[in-house]
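Please fill in the sequence for the structure shown.

STRUCTURE ENCODING:
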């Protein structure tokens, strides 16, 4: 027979819904997004250190331009 003290709100496996929600949120955290993380990191760094970020952009652009010069 059923235990009267056990309710679906206390037992997440009774309905299955909270377990599915937990599994879905855990699945989202398991997927790595390195490109998104890198873009977010660089954006945050550039906002906090605009001078240094500008020098990095200039330096990288200078080197790429030097290597790709048309003559």
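FILLED IN BY: designer on duty
SEQUENCE:
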């Amino acid at each position: 027979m059923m235990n009267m003290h056990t309710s679906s709100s206390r037992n997440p496996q009774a309905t299955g819904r909270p377990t599915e929600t937990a599994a879905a949120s855990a699945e989202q955290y398991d997927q790595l997004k390195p490109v998104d993380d890198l873009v977010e990191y660089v954006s945050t760094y550039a906002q906090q250190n605009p001078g240094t970020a500008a020098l990095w952009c200039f330096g990288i652009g200078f080197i790429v331009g030097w290597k790709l010069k048309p003559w």
